[in-house]
Structures are given as structure tokens and as C-alpha cells.
Amino acid sequence: MFDISLFVLMLLGALLALAVYLPLRAGQLSLATPGFYTIGGTVAALLSTTVPELGGNEQTYPLTSVFLELMLAIPLVALLAFLIGKPVLKLKGIYLAIATIALVEILRVVLLSSPWFGAAVGIFAIPQPFEGPEGYAAAFAVLLGITAWGCQRLETEPLGREMAAIRNDELAARCMGVNSERVKLIAFVLSAIIAAAAGVLAAHFFNSWSARQASFDASITTLAFVVLGGSRTWLGPVIGGLVLTALPELLRPIGDLRLIVFGLVILLGPIFIPQGLIQQKRS
Amino acid sequence: MIGSTSLELNGLSVRFGGLQALDQLSFSLQQGEIFGLIGPNGAGKTTLFNVITGLTAATSGEVRWQGKTTAGLRPDQLCNLGIARTFQNLRVFSDLSCIDNLQIAMGCNDRRTALELLAIMDLQEKGTHIAGSLAYGEQRRLELVRALATKPQLLLLDEPAAGMNPVEKQKLQVLLNTIRKQFQLTILIIEHHVPLMMKLCDRLAVLNFGRCIAIGSPQEVQEDPLVIEAYLGRGA
Ligand SMILES: Nc1ncnc2c1ncn2[C@@H]1O[C@H](COP(=O)(O)OP(=O)(O)OP(=O)(O)O)[C@@H](O)[C@H]1O
Ligand SMILES: [Mg+2]
């Protein structure tokens, strides 16, 4: 039997993988994705549970209200990513990774310690815009479709090429007229927007939302999606996100060993499939 | 416009800790000339390129480009102002195709121009090849044409003939003269191969320990006793 809820999780995994992929395409290993995802979800959870006007008169929560949440969460997160990205993206390689992990950790502690955001228990009874998982599957599929289409377009656009150039040789790229600071910042902000949009939908889907979303586990899990799938083309992270989300559910008996599976993927992936499952065609 | 000043160095110095890499350099390039830079290893030649392209900041003094100081400008801004370069140790985008390499430098999707540029270097058949898979000489030419693709007025070449055989060096000399005319370039070139430089350059400057010890026509420089002692004297 095909489990539609699992399918929704797989689509969510693919979206988050694309969010990790974008900065990586420009050579930047940012692990901030779960942070922006959590902020998106928190905005949705707060608005839909505290603003009665958004509720409407129908049985289900109106889709227009979800859309409003997106319209609020996206600029908010974009602004935040811009402000954070400017200084943080000056860091290179592993230092950027560590700094972004720290940022997610800070966010988690802030959310945990503030009653406003539901503190440790989180925000409950988030209203449902859909009656069953089918509606969520459709909504996530649309969001993933738009995101993947954008990433695909990027591959043949100057911006995407500049990202590839920075990843290949940032110094040479700068000397060839690429404003690497700007390009990296754009990638970081776009990544944050994707994560936040996914968070808005996810908060409704999960029905509750808490600081636990912004965990170190989540950073590593989303990174594993991209390491497995590959980060040369948009299809890699999508496949990685779909497969690695489904895998532990299918291997449910192993329980918490799931994190070990991800760890092994991150450890062994670069050794055995350095470019990931989906590799770019070469001539 | 030929004959007017394009690039000007004013008492330019660069210090790395205790090492004086460039020491009070002052000279200027005339528009349209091929200006050679020679000097022993570690003389500061590449460092000068790095300052001109905004990768290294001057400790004191300044570089002026088209009458304005370049202090504080980023490499990409200087590139957009018409200064392009190649690197001593090849830096093509080795994971990307030759066309991608050029399109990045051009900043647009114009595939036709990219192919036309590749044709100048006899690389038209390699358009979709991954740059890293090309032969060494081809990568050198790709890097040169990638610099041209930024539409420069000043082209900085850091040892373009390194690793080339005599036939290729001969071809390079012809090629540089051709592109200088075709693209109306001023060329600043670093090269250890002195005979090539004597034939190619309108003027030469000789660096030693960061200092300019001679400047002038190839004949003048060749006969300069300081130069013979510092550089040419050592079997070159
Ligand atoms: N970033 C740096 N930090 C510290 N020292 C440096 C740096 N870059 C260059 N140097 C030193 O400055 C001196 C000049 O180096 P530079 O590369 O400019 O020499 P060069 O004339 O290009 O030599 P070559 O002919 O070997 O290429 C060398 O002693 C070098 O070690
Ligand atoms: Mg050098």
C-alpha cells in the first residue's frame, strides 16, 4: 500500500535538499536550512493559531490564508538571510558550516526559551487547510515543481553559471568580473526562501510546531540528501531528498539507527560516489 | 588615443610581513603598447599583477587606471573597468565547458560570440569539452581567450609561454600581436623567456627584489649593466 503521508515527507525532503543545494552550487556549505525552515513554520503556526480572522468560515482553514502566511514568511526570512548572509558568507569552507550550525542552535534556544513560540512544548492545533494528506501532497508537489523549475532554469542562466564558477575557482571568477559576494548572498537568500516556504506548509501538515525542527540532526539529514544525490544539478538533491526520506521509513525496524545511516551516507558517499548519484553529463 | 597613459604606478609598495615584495614602483603604460616585465623568481612580478587586479592591497602608493585611483576596488569591478588577466598557474574553470568558461567572462548567454572567440585560439571544436580535459597548451589558450571575453583594454599575462615548445612560443608571439591590433589592447606581460620578450615588447621593465632596476626599449634594457648582473647575466 502506498502511504501518501510518507510521500508528503519525501517531497518535503526534496525541497529542503534543494535549499541546501543552492548555496552549495556556489561552493558554500551552509547548514542553516533547518533554521529558515523553522522560522517559516513558526510564522505559519503563530499566525494560524493566534489570528482568528485568518480562519475563515469554512470547515477547513482557507488556502488564501496559507498564501498570506507565505507572503509574510518569505520576505521576513529573505531579509533575515540577507542580514545574516552578509557577514557570515565571508567565512569559507568548514568555518561557514560551523557558523551556520551555531546560528541554527541559537535560534533553537531562543524558540525553546520563549513562551511566545510555545517554548519546549511548541505550538499545537495548527489548523488544516486540507482534509487529508492528498491535499498536502499536491501543495508540496506544486512548491517542489516551482522550485525545481527555477533551479533548472538557473543552470543555463548567467547567475547559475557564475555560481558554478565560484564553486570551481572563486578567485578566478572574481577576476573575470563575477561579484562573488553578491552571487553567494543571492544563493543564500534563495535557499532561505525555499526552506521557509517548505516550513509554512510543513507546520500545517504536522499540525504542531516546535523548536525541535531546528536541530543539528536536521542540518545533517538535509546535508545527507545532497551528498547522496549530488550537487551538480538540481535533480541530484531532489532524488537524494526523496530516497533518503523514504529509506528510514521503509527500514523502520532500525529505529534510531536512522541517524547512523545518514552518517554513513555522509562519510561513505564522498568516497564511493564523489559527485553523488546524479552526475552531470560530460563530453 | 595611442600614446596616452593607460595604467600608472605611483610609488607602489607592497609588504608581506618582513618581506618587501614591491618597493616604490613608479612607471606607466602607454595605450596600445606591449610592456614586458622580467626579473628573477620572487622579484614581485605576480604580486604587481595581484595589486593591479585588486587581489592584493598596496601597502603604500597607488595604481591609477584611466586617471583614477584603483584603491579599494574589487577584482570584479576592475575587470568591468577593462582590466583582465591570466594566471601563472592556470586557473581555467576546469569543471565547466569551454563555452561556459567564456560565457562567465562575458557575463551573458551569447553562445555565438563565445564560439567566435574560441575560433581565434583554434579551439572552436572544443566548445562543449570540459576545460579540465583539454591539453595543457589548449588550457593556456582558453585562459587567454577567457580574459579577452571580458572585453578588456588592458590585458595582464602572467608567463603565458610557460611550458610551451619553441613552435608554440613563435605562434604565441604572432597571436599576441594579432589580438593587440584586433582588440586594441594594451598588454602587460610577464615572461622568463627573454628572446621572446625582446621580439615582442615595445618596452621592458626589470624587477629585482621588488624594485624596478631598469626600464626602456629591449635594446636599452639588454645593455643595462644592472640588468646583466641581476638577471641576464645568469646564463639567460
Ligand atoms: N600573499 C603573500 N604572502 C606572503 N608573501 C608573499 C605573498 N605573495 C607573494 N609573496 C612573496 O613575495 C615575493 C614575490 O612573489 P611573486 O610571486 O610576486 O614573485 P614573481 O616575481 O612572480 O616570481 P616568479 O617568477 O617565481 O613567479 C616572493 O618572495 C613571495 O614568496
Ligand atoms: Mg610569478
Quick structural summary:
The complex is a heterodimer of chains A (283) and B (236). Chain A contains ten helices and no strands.
Please characterize this protein's 3D structure.
- The complex is a heterodimer of chains A (283) and B (236).
- By secondary structure, chain A is mostly helical.
- Chain A contains ten helices and no strands.
- In chain A, helix 1 packs parallel to helix 5, helix 2 crosses helix 7 (180-206) and helix 8 (216-229) crosses helix 9 (235-250).
- Chain A has helices spanning 4-25, 33-50, 63-88, 93-113, 133-154, 158-175, 180-206, 216-229, 235-250, 258-272.
- Chain B folds into two domains: 1-82 and 152-236, P-loop containing nucleotide triphosphate hydrolases (Rossmann fold); 86-150, no CATH class.
- In chain B, 36% of the residues lie in helices and 25% in strands.
- Chain B has nine helices and eleven strands.
- Chain B has helices at residues 45-52, 75-80, 98-106, 111-120, 136-148, 166-183, 194-200, 218-223, 225-232, and strands at residues 5-16, 19-25, 28-30, 34-38, 60-65, 68-69, 83-85, 154-158, 186-190, 203-208, 211-216.
- In chain B, the strands form two sheets. Chain B has a six-stranded mixed beta sheet with strand order 7-8-9-4-10-11, with helices on both faces. In chain B, strands 1, 2, 3, 5 and 6 form a five-stranded antiparallel beta sheet that branches.
- In chain B, strand 5 (60-65) and strand 6 (68-69) form a beta hairpin.
- In chain B, helix 3 (98-106) packs across helix 4 (111-120) and helix 3 (98-106) runs parallel beside helix 5.
- The longest helix of chain B is centred in the last third of the chain and has 18 residues, at 166-183.
- The model of chain B has no long low-confidence stretch (mean pLDDT 91).
- Classes of the chains: A mainly alpha (283), B alpha/beta (236).
- Chains A and B meet through helix 6 of A and helix 2 and helix 3 of B.
- The structure holds adenosine-5'-triphosphate (ATP) and magnesium ion.
- Residues 16, 19, 21, 39, 41-47, 88 of chain B line the site of adenosine-5'-triphosphate (ATP).
